[in-house]
Amino acid sequence: MSQAFRRLLVKRALAILAIMAVFSTALIVRLIYWQILDGGHLAQAALAEQYAHLTLPPERGVITDRNGHLLALETTGDALYAMPRSIQDPAALARALAPIIGQSERHLQTLLSSKSVFLWLSYHVTAAQAARIEALGAYNGLGLQPDSWRIYPEGNLAGAVIGFVGVDQQGLAGIEESYNRQLAGRPGAEVVRVDALGNQLPQYGAHFQPAVPGDGLRTTLDSAIQTFAQQDLNAAVKANHAKGGRILVLDPNTGAILAMAQYPEPSPANWQSYSMTQWVDQPVEYAFEPGSTIKPFTLSAALASGVVTPKWTIDDTGSIVIDGIRIYDWIKSGFGVIGLDTALAMSSDVAFATLAMDIGMKRYYSYLHLYHLDRATGIDLPGEASGIVPPPASVTQLDMGEMGFGQTLAVTPLQLAAAVATVASGGVWHTPHVGQALLLPNGKTKALSFPSQRVVSQKVAGEVQSAMLDVVAKGTGNLAAVKGYAIAGKTGTANVTSSAGGFKPGDFLASFIGYGPVPNPKVLTLVQIDDPKGLFYGGDVAAPIFSQLMGQIFNYLGLPPTGVTLAQQTVSVPNVVGKSFADAALHVAQTGLLLKRQGTGVRIVAQSPRPGQQIVPGATLTVTLGGGNSPIGVPDLLGLTAQQVYAQAAAAGYTANLRGSGVAVQQSPAAGTSLKPGRTVSVYLSPPP
């Protein structure tokens, strides 16, 4: 063997040894990585291939009203699952299964042909569907697992308050969302050993971790009162051709919500049919300019801060100038020398602007805070809005005056109801709430508690209540009276703000809030109607709904009558035949009577009751208009707010076309111009300087 050939063999041997060394080193490194660095992950992956995990859903807790009437509960059935690796003919199984569970054959074939060890095919399988599935016994790889889902036996009763749960049993609105942690419970699990094809290996058994059922919730809602509220609200919205509305009923002594209705009311059973905006709890999340319904609060702040006494009086001439801007009462001639009770009963803007300015910004804001009108109430429902008030540093005297009668600030219906409930409960503010007690799986109950605090003295609350009684007995809220019961309340008519700024022309929010029976009130109710057509004052639109609903509630609760509801003094009915409606309104306002018109024309041709008849203050004088369409004079609208412009123009038989925001600075035609009824008066508004 030659020397050259020997060297060639050595080189080849060394090359082979080098290659083997590199390969061995790489293999050792890889083994170290697999065994040490990635061993845990690979072991878990192997276990995942060997075990199938089934989640066992817990039973969600029931929701009941305060009397135990079921509002939401679980119903049982099955859920269908598949182990695709065990399925021999996915196409045939998909074809057989599709008509049973209502899914497309193509979609099912895609799922059944996947490489997954386990997957869910359908939830909420009924007993009839389960029987048909079990009849497909020739197909391996299918299984049924006990399942439950939510049903709402009362349809849309309190729908927005109750809310709904999604397909994953997660609360997504209302009580279902806010109490989801308590209602949901904890899921369990079933773990089984499977072979490479996904078939269960029975010799290994199964490991169970039972699900923990959720707590039930007994709410403060009363199904009967909620039914009354929804029926009355639906009828009122339709009768007034309104855009919508809300009714809130609570126990003023505890803050417990008895009913919360809105129009339209969504149905939890068909939650997918509604947009999320329709699931907004309007009384909780909708902020509005309260108008005159804020006046009981202003009165209580004035009395509590010592700015006035019950003997305070004011000479209401019909207007007041603040920062160079003249603000008018809804009756431009004013009410003369009046006290606190009459100021509230006749809803004098001049009086309450004066009170707010006398209280001063610092003290006024301190009471806004105590009454939770500048912050959330803390109700146990999701999405609560807080009040909107001007920043203290920017508040002017004009702002203070307007806040006194319900402009320049916004509150939610819930904030307003809780504030007025403070008066009804003798000066104690209670947190409004819908939860009463948790119903534990062991059969016991756990009462829920909510904070309360004294805001004003019982003496101050009583003085405000006295004035609110006069609102119904002889003021703007006489249509809220409930025969045989003493009722305290307040009317409100507010402009609706536009997203573009200013107010929506001709768009009003008619409100009435009140409680009874006095002296031991059990129920407080707030009624709001959005943009009613025709009559739009709270006393004309919302007060009658309040009266009807409270009568139903008192009868349902078995509350005995408390006595006479209207004042005993009487007034003589004035003669307004021959006058224009605007002139009659100014004249009749001095008597404490309310004026209602019917018919068309420029002059009053008949009236009821007849002139000289003795009737109680707060009663309604109905007048009939006639006399054709002869021209009458355009009223003076300068200096009025948008709401006052609409009211004064309508009283004279005209339609107002507004531009801008603030107070009226220009009108066309000018005041006094002869113009046929039904024509339009253009009014230009400008914000205060």
Structure write-up:
The protein has 20 helices and 31 strands. It has 689 residues and is an alpha+beta fold. The protein has four domains: 3-37; 52-219, Alpha-Beta Complex (Penicillin-binding protein 2a (Domain 2)); 223-263 and 282-438 and 445-557, Beta-lactamase (3-Layer(aba) Sandwich), CATH 3.40.710.10; 571-686, 2-Layer Sandwich (Trypsin Inhibitor V, Chain A). The strands form ten sheets. Strands 2, 3, 4, 5, 8, 16 and 17 form a seven-stranded mixed sheet that branches. Strands 10-9-21-20-19 form a five-stranded antiparallel sheet, sandwiched between helices. It has a three-stranded antiparallel sheet with strand order 1-6-7. The longest helix has 35 residues, at 3-37. It is elongated, with a radius of gyration of 36 Å. The mean pLDDT is 84.
Question: What structural keywords apply?
Answer:
Penicillin-binding protein 2a (Domain 2), 689 residues, Beta-lactamase, 32% helix, 5-stranded antiparallel β-sheet, 7-stranded mixed β-sheet, alpha+beta, elongated
